[in-house]
Amino acid sequence: MSSRRSGAPRLTDVDDVSNLIMKLQALLPQLNQNNPTSVVTASSVMKEACSCIKRLQKEVDDLSETLSQLLDSVDITSVDAEFLRGILLQ
């Protein structure tokens, strides 16, 4: 257990969170498209990050389904199929 008392977070914790939010915001350029000088809240950064992750997961699922359908339609040997699976799982 930490010996840290409840109350205000340590300054380094606040700084760490702020730095992580800024790094995350940099990965989400759609937050700054309208007005690059506007203030973006941590909450909106987190919401957009969650939304982006959901979109990416759906895209991965869709691409996986498409790939599966393509592999089913191609005449490949089981050795080739295992080789492709191995590559895709890396």
UniProtKB/TrEMBL annotation:
GO terms, biological process: regulation of DNA-templated transcription; regulation of growth
GO MF annotation terms: protein dimerization activity
Any one annotated GO CC term: nucleus
Keywords per UniProt: Coiled coil, Growth regulation, Nucleus, Transcription, Transcription regulation
Compartmental location: Nucleus
Record-linked Pfam families: bHLH_ILI (PF23174)
InterPro entries named among the record's database cross-references: HLH_DNA-bd_sf, ILI2-like, PRE
Residues forming coiled coils: 46-73
Superkingdom in the source lineage: Eukaryota
PANTHER family linked: DNA BINDING PROTEIN
Protein name (Swiss-Prot/TrEMBL): Uncharacterized protein
